[in-house]
What we know:
Blueprint: H1 8-17, E1 23-29, E2 35-41, E3 53-56, E4 82-87, E5 93-95, E6 102-110, H2 121-134, E7 138-151, H3 152-156, H4 180-185, H5 187-199, E8 204-209, E9 215-220, H6 226-246, E10 249-252, E11 266-273, E12 285-286, E13 291-292, H7 295-315, E14 337-338, E15 346-347, E16 358-360, H8 369-385, H9 410-419, H10 423-427, H11 429-447, H12 452-458
Parallel strand pairs: 1-6, 14-15
Antiparallel strand pairs: 1-2, 3-4, 4-6, 5-6, 7-9, 7-10, 7-11, 8-9, 11-16, 12-13, 15-16
Helix pairs in contact: 2-8, 5-6, 7-8, 7-9, 9-11
Amino acid sequence: xxxxxxxxxxxxxxxNAHSDVVAVDMLLPDMNGILRGKQLGRDYVHxxxxxxxxxPGSNYLLDWTGQNVTTLDYGTSDGxxxxxxxxxxxxxxxxxxxxxxxxxxxxxxxxxxxxxxxxDPRNVLQRALKPLTDMGLTPVIAIEYEFYLIDxxxxxxxxxxxxxxxxxxxxxxxxxxxxxxxxxxxxDVLSAIHEACDIQRLPAETFVAxxxxxxxxxxxxxxxxxxxxxxxxxxxxxxxxQVARRHDMIATFxxxxxxxxxxxxxxxxxxxxxxxxxxxxxxPFDERLxxxxxxxxxxxxxxxxxxxxxxxxxxxxNANSYRRLKPGTYAPVKANWGGDNRTxxxxxxxxxxxxxxxxxxxxxxxANPYLVVAAVLAGMHHGIVNEIEPHDPVVGDGYxxxxxxxxxxxxxxxxxxxxxxxxxxxxxxxxxRAFATARQFECDNFHYQIQPLDYQWYLRTA
Length: 462
């Protein structure tokens, strides 16, 4: 099989520019957003651009622990066949954190005849994007990630707590949101992350101390390619984790690592441009929102609200994800929307007509960005083509006002996902069934584990 990717020259240029590189990490984001793959020797990199490198398709369908999902018809059930992986153009970059000179490159999976493999999240996103592009619409997307820096030595002893600031030698213990001192306390690791982003051409715009001790946020600059936005997001996550490891810390994107502290979200900003570069979400000035709001924005909101319960299993993909979804914590629990309001699921930030956009605030930082963006774009298209009118926007506390409740317990979210009628048209029914089966397998296994709280509450009283 030969699949043309404009890449042999790309591989040559990279290897010539980095003559010391001895290996390249081939990266495939699985269903959970965990990067899997293999390390290629320098002389083997060209194969990823020419013939393709074979890997089992089941790599995309593992549970969070990396084991095969025995209830799926993929893996041991079908003999675990190989498919062909090819490099994603323009993602071959050096990595500055390896013990030896190394590069990395994203890859995507295809059948022997060149058709996309259904379970590759990049291919799922491409499929979900097509209905909008067929309408002549281009999404412009920016992604924000929240994460914690954790004390690695303490975690190895079973104690999870924020990392000690290398400059101050103090462990952060207060909510110092937007505090600049926290940025300087962790200046060494944050500067190293910024330098690594520059090396890999990841457009990290801002670094912020977030709403909890040891929590930070990094925002990526908006781009007019949904695939590129998600490629950059998944590579930013890897960059943060690997640089933190070199500084003897753990960067965690768990949705809720601390019960009493803020959870970590993955926020997606989306606007839509027509063929002439006009923002189709803009419209007449809305006094309630203090924003220029067009019909297409309202209908996109209507579709997002309508599909949000069905998509919750995508936005909150594991057991810990649902610990973040608690009223009064800036984490959404209702399918609502509003203007400059962080208590709602869908926020319309302050902007002029060129930059009117939706900020989708539901997903946790542990979610797969490709699937999150695919679900967001699916919801927007569904609302636009069906001209779905949303309920009135929220003014004030979104937790206290009437709106449809979201499924904020894992089994309920999986049931709503399985019963859904919209996402299958965008993701493909095969993928929806595989995702539901894999997540149910993991949910069942998690349920049957005995937790420490079981002993604390029930050992002597039951």
